[in-house]
Amino acid sequence: MHGTREYNFDGLVGPSHNYAGLSFGNVASFSNVKSASNPKQAALQGLAKMRALAARGFAQALLPPQDRPNFRLLRSIGFTGTDADVLARAYKESPVILACAYSASPMWTANAATVSPSADTQDGRVHFTAANLNNKLHRAFEHAQSARSLRAIFGNEKHFAVHDALPSTPAFGDEGAANHTRLGATHGAPSVELFVYGRVEFDPSAPSPKRYPARQTLEASQAVARLHGLEAKRTVYVQQNPEVIDQGVFHNDVIAVGNGNVLFYHEQAFADEEASLSQVRRAVAHAGAQLAAVRVDTGQVPIQDAVTSYLFNSQLLSKDDGTMALVIPQECCENKAVSRYLEGLVADGGPIDELIHFDLRQSMRNGGGPACLRLRVALTETEARAMHQGVIMTEALYHRLVAWVEKHYRDHLEPSDLADPQLALEVHAALEELTIILNLPGLYDRQAWQ
């Protein structure tokens, strides 16, 4: 397994990036979020991050945005007529549903799929399962295009297996890699796959949050592990602390992040910290590594500070010298408790010795930090050659995409702009050109426009 590298596939922000407050799925949230978004700035911020990490020598690629608006969704629930009629009527009768059809949330590719590298799987292939994201209307339709995009990039069936999403029912609520991490000696070594779930569908006595929904079920995590052919002794399931879900920690990657043998986590991350850690430690030891647990106490960083700064929604990246860099959003530097904690973290001689920060405000305002924006895929040299090369970030691709964004994206988008038929045409034209830039003909299902 020599030469295995971890590729970070960042989501390229789509032209319909808007602030509709959809994560709670209600009209009150929508009507309170009236601020204008800047799709052009959002895309350029994401591209700058990809370019900088690629320039540092990290393996960097991208996943393309999804087709918007989702006319198939709008027509399936009774909006009829021309495309312009559909948009006008949806805006008049249910602006929140129109916003769902225009959602640019596929930019957060940590939710696109769960990935198991070939070192962990029974058949020696890299396995992907598209996440059904069935907890939220605006995300529940993403999995079809996610699977289509993954098959376009990882189409070589000798090396890759892309599974369709799990059944879209509450029992199998699946949010992808945002609730999954991998811990082991190196990216190429057989490693522990850690699944973090929020609730248990078939055990009503199991603890669950009271205020906000737990989006990942134990049953979904177990199903993904079966589909990927994971070895039981290197697969661990732990429950997220329901009390922190109720404080806005909707995914595990908002409260913990792992890489190599390091698990960087908040003391309140798991329902039973001691039992969870000992389970992970045993499994990692079985995989031939020693877990380095970096625990953040509530006294150092209260939950609210962790959530608002997205401290744990950072990327933890292995450097060539064996140390790690933490890629953080600018907000971490602006939060006193978090900034103070991070200064101590890099100074204490532990595995994390560098901070790399980016301005990702357009993404952060919509609820996603650096880790949300990327899907991690560990690939051997042979597998890396077997995937589609057109999505790998290079200096040339960066400049081509910046020019494309400058040409096609608006720099101001109000919720009312979603009713403008011209916006749909602009998105369509942009994505048509993107398929040429990325050399991915047929990436989008054009029948969805009918």
Helix share of residues? Answer: 25-40%
Mean pLDDT: 93
Strand order of the largest sheet: 2-1-15
| Helix/strand structural class | alpha/beta
Low-pLDDT residue spans: 24-32
Number of distinct helices? 17
Indicate the overall shape.
Answer: globular
Largest sheet: 3 strands, mixed
Rg of Cα set = 21 Å
The total strand number stands at: 15
Strand content: 15-25%
The CA-CA distance between the termini, in Å, is: 46 Å
Task: Output the keywords.
about 450 residues; alpha/beta; three-stranded mixed beta sheet; 17 helices; 15 strands
Question: How would you describe the overall organization of this protein?
Answer:
With 450 residues, this protein is of the alpha/beta class. 35% of the residues lie in helices and 17% in strands. The chain has 17 helices and 15 strands. The chain has helices at residues 27-32, 39-55, 71-76, 83-93, 95-101, 137-140, 142-153, 218-228, 242-245, 273-286, 303-309, 331-334, 336-347, 361-364, 381-386, 395-408, 421-437; strands spanning 5-11, 59-63, 113-116, 126-130, 160-163, 180-183, 192-197, 235-239, 256-259, 262-266, 292-296, 315-318, 324-329, 352-358, 374-379. The strands form five sheets. The chain has a three-stranded mixed sheet. Strands 3-4-5 form a three-stranded mixed sheet. α2 packs antiparallel against α16. Residues 24-32 have low confidence and may be disordered.
